[in-house]
Amino acid sequence: MIEQGRDCKDVVTQLAAVSRALDRAGFKIVATGLRECITGDHADGATPMTEAELEKLFLALA
């Protein structure tokens, strides 16, 4: 867009939209992973995590 001489406002708007889309995709991936940790529904047969372990893992994302 920049190379095409588009307006700065258009470029920033598109970058913001892409950023939000990536954030949503990332949160979906994390939510799915945490759900698997809670239920213990792993392909490798791992045991479910405790609430404290999940909290520590989730806070590591911040």
UniProtKB/TrEMBL annotation:
<comment type="similarity">
    <text>Belongs to the CsoR family.</text>
</comment>
<dbReference type="GO" id="GO:0046872">
    <property type="term" value="F:metal ion binding"/>
</dbReference>
<dbReference type="GO" id="GO:0045892">
    <property type="term" value="P:negative regulation of DNA-templated transcription"/>
</dbReference>
<dbReference type="InterPro" id="IPR003735">
    <property type="entry name" value="Metal_Tscrpt_repr"/>
</dbReference>
<dbReference type="GO" id="GO:0003677">
    <property type="term" value="F:DNA binding"/>
</dbReference>
<protein>
    <recommendedName>
        <fullName>Copper-sensing transcriptional repressor CsoR</fullName>
    </recommendedName>
</protein>
<keyword id="KW-0238">DNA-binding</keyword>
<dbReference type="Pfam" id="PF02583">
    <property type="entry name" value="Trns_repr_metal"/>
</dbReference>
<dbReference type="InterPro" id="IPR038390">
    <property type="entry name" value="Metal_Tscrpt_repr_sf"/>
</dbReference>
<keyword id="KW-0186">Copper</keyword>
<keyword id="KW-0678">Repressor</keyword>
